[in-house]
UniProtKB/TrEMBL annotation:
Gene Ontology molecular function, alphabetical: GTP binding; GTPase activity
Domain OBG-type G intervals: 63-288
Keyword Nucleotide-binding attributed: yes
Alphabetized NCBIfam families for the sequence: small_GTP
Protein name, per record: Developmentally-regulated GTP-binding protein 2 isoform X2
PROSITE patterns, A to Z: G_OBG, GTP1_OBG
Keyword Nucleotide-binding listed: yes
Pfam families in the record: MMR_HSR1, MMR_HSR1_Xtn, TGS
Listed Gene3D superfamilies: 3.10.20.30, 6.10.140.1070
Keywords: GTP-binding, Nucleotide-binding
Organism: Delphinapterus leucas
Amino acid sequence: MGILEKISEIEKEIARTQKNKATEYHLGLLKAKLAKYRAQLLEPSKSSSSKGEGFDVMKSGDARVALIGFPSVGKSTFLSLITSTASEAASYEFTTLTCIPGVIEYKGANIQLLDLPGIIEGAAQGKGRGRQVIAVARTADVVIMMLDATKGEVQRSLLEKELGSVGIRLNKHKPNIYFKPKKGGGISFNSTVTLTQCSEKLVQLILHEYKIFNAEVLFREDCSPDEFIDVIMGNRVYMPCLYVYNKIDQISMEEVDRLARKPDSVVISCGMKLNLDYLLETLWEHLALTCIYTKKRGQRPDFTDAIILRKGASVEHVCHRIHRSLASQFKAPAPSTARSGWA
């Protein structure tokens, strides 16, 4: 039985198993096996002598955004509208067969936008060049999931499933679990919160499935078995995702209002060029970029050339962007000597 058949059998077993206290250990083991087989599926084949054609492009600009979606949802039209890059767009599926990069110039920042070929169901198993598409998506700072507003929620759930099966976690934070394998001493398990989804026995069963018999485990939040498996695997990518519903000119106003109120969602129409400005503004917020402007002593600030940094950057990061030797020569300002009241 091949890996794909094993994955299919485990998924069917999970689907037909009732979720309750009596089956939680069985389900936990099944999920651990499923994650292990999916990781094996993503490993490059050693028997293949010829290298497959990839389409990753060099990372450039201040941030990278991956544009993914099913065929014929308007990705190429969107790229052509908000960048100076012309991507072939047509009414038939699979117009785009390779990765087409473009640059969004917004608030002084250069944001690299990658138009990836359309994903089909089963992309995580390699169908339709799905592995290459997903591999590029893992290198992005933000994923824009382009969806057809006329298709309801089907596309969104299928894409989330495909990306989730290869370790891409959308709009989620890394589980606050301390995990460290050891050479001996058995499994040390502790938690600082009350656990309702995991138990010490279940944690030990999952670790044994991965042939780990000595480790330190500390839960700092109430996490599920799936989240604990993600920590063990250590190759998960946590990134923000913006759900963009295109073709809103073909649905009712009530449906547009419902989609627009969903979290992390924006409604647009590439055909009628509707709401594209708001989409760029929302994308900027998801990227969490900050504009830093410099000024020479005695002169006004230069607002034409900004230094683009990530949110939370320090003065040291600014110094490194200006010149690598500036940080070592930088002097911190003296503490304030102002006194309250009269001087």
